[in-house]
Design goal:
The chain has 15 helices and 15 strands. The chain has helices spanning 63-77, 99-112, 116-119, 136-145, 159-165, 172-184, 202-214, 232-238, 247-263, 282-288, 315-319, 336-347, 356-364, 370-383, 404-415, and strands at 34-41, 81-91, 124-129, 149-155, 188-195, 219-224, 267-270, 273-275, 294-296, 301-304, 307-311, 328-332, 354-355, 387-390, 393-396. The radius of gyration is 21 Å and the shape is globular.
């Protein structure tokens, strides 16, 4: 999962797979209270074989049209936003957007939204970056606009493994991108690594960690390779052309990642995310804490006033949707049981865990005996050494991070 963790959609779905809904914000009163914004820029120069986030190789040069449409959507979102504390621009490859379009987009963001928390150093503005598109002039433009964090998709430093992933950057370009970002004045550097890649050895992982840590990032996201439905890599697995690594090796790799990063001051604060103290990804914490955020761009997901939705994941239909809010899909109405389940599912992936008094308060509004049922599941996992109490909070133990999905399934089964 990339650093932005925006809810993925499956590759290039056919038009008929989308069932648009009335945009949920049409029924929400503007409050100027939402403090986070996610923007999705879908352009890529190549579709990686493991990726199921919405991205396209655009042969029709629609960047200007896309920027126009995106700006129109941002104008509609502005009345819902308070002073923005986090902005995250993901993709796709946001740094593939040409500087002229970036300049227009930055001016629009600055005009529509209050960026004072970011300007004063109390907020975070992240842009995802492919190493090959980290052009110095663009990075200076971003830094001058207030971008203070760059997330660079390294994935691996082994040419052989990059080829397996269908990543087309040179390993040496990662260090160049980091140096250019720092020279532009962007000091908060996050690197993405993937491990448990088909045929990867523990020695190759050690080498990847050596290369990444030598660049002294303040944050790293390290994900085991997952085989998402309908991606080319998953089809190759089904055809027997490649095989996932053995589970025991994947666990050994994960444990080695944790050990090596901790030695360099990068502590695990979420199952797959590691940071120096004070350098945790503030925007991703908004997701994991189930706080509200606005979204813009095709396939971007949002969460406001209990509503969840996704902008239609199709560039052509997004561009053709007029000047207001675009069509939405996967719209979910406010639901207290779902909200509690999501809070538990994501919160127990975090080192900080969840405050159990909030869980009990929410459970009492859903069903009289729900709190007791959840407590029994909690105690089961405490007895197994996967959860522990820390004051009023329930937090994962080191071994509990390995069982985060199983814990979530157990708790969600009580809520269903």
């Amino acid at each position: 999962m990339p650093d932005n963790i925006a809810i993925p959609i499956t590759g290039q779905s056919p038009d008929h797979a989308f069932v648009p809904h009335r945009h949920p914000l049409h029924g929400v009163s503007p409050s100027r209270s939402v403090r986070s914004l996610y923007i999705h820029i879908p352009f890529c120069f190549h579709k990686c074989h493991y990726c199921d986030f919405y991205s396209i190789v655009d042969s029709r040069d629609r960047q200007n049209a896309f920027t126009d449409r995106l700006i129109a959507e941002l104008a509609e979102l502005a009345p819902f936003a308070g002073p923005l504390e986090t902005v995250f621009v993901g993709g796709g490859t946001p740094t593939l957007l040409v500087p002229a379009c970036w300049d227009r987009l930055i001016r629009a963001i600055d005009g529509f939204f209050d960026l004072s928390p970011i300007r004063r150093g109390r907020g975070e503005w992240t842009v995802e970056c492919n190493p090959e598109t980290a052009e110095p002039d663009l990075l200076v433009l971003l830094a001058d606009a207030g971008v203070n964090r760059i997330s660079i998709g390294a994935q691996s430093f082994q040419p052989r493994l990059l080829k397996v992933l269908e990543r087309w950057h040179q390993p040496s370009s990662v260090a160049i991108a980091v140096e250019r970002a720092r020279r532009a004045g962007i000091e908060r550097i996050s690197l993405d690594l993937i491990f448990a890649i088909c045929t990867q050895t523990l020695e190759e992982l050690e080498s990847d960690l050596d290369e990444a840590l030598a660049l002294e990032p303040s944050h790293m996201s390290c994900y085991a390779l997952t085989y998402e439905p309908n991606t080319p890599l998953t089809r190759r697995v089904r055809m027997g052309q490649v095989s996932p690594v053995e589970e025991s090796l994947e666990v050994a790799m994960y444990e080695r990642v944790i050990e090596r990063l901790a030695e360099r001051g990068l502590d695990r604060y979420e199952v797959s995310n590691f940071a120096r103290q004070g350098h945790e990804c503030a925007h991703n914490l908004v997701y994991w804490r189930q706080e509200p955020w606005l979204c813009a761009g095709p396939s971007a997901s949002g969460h406001v006033a209990g509503w969840r939705w996704k902008d239609i994941p199709h560039l052509g239909r997004y561009l053709a949707s007029g000047d207001g809010l675009p069509p939405a899909i996967d719209v979910e109405e406010p639901d207290s049981a779902r909200a509690l389940g999501e809070r538990l599912m994501t919160g127990l992936r975090l080192r900080e865990g969840v405050p159990w008094c909030e869980v009990e308060d929410a459970a009492r509004t859903i069903a009289p005996d729900l709190s007791a049922h959840l407590a029994r599941v909690r105690e089961k996992w405490i007895d197994q050494g996967c959860l522990q109490r820390a004051g009023d909070r329930v937090v994962p133990t080191p071994s509990g991070f390995l069982f985060a999905d199983a814990i979530a399934r157990d708790l969600l089964a009580v809520l269903c």
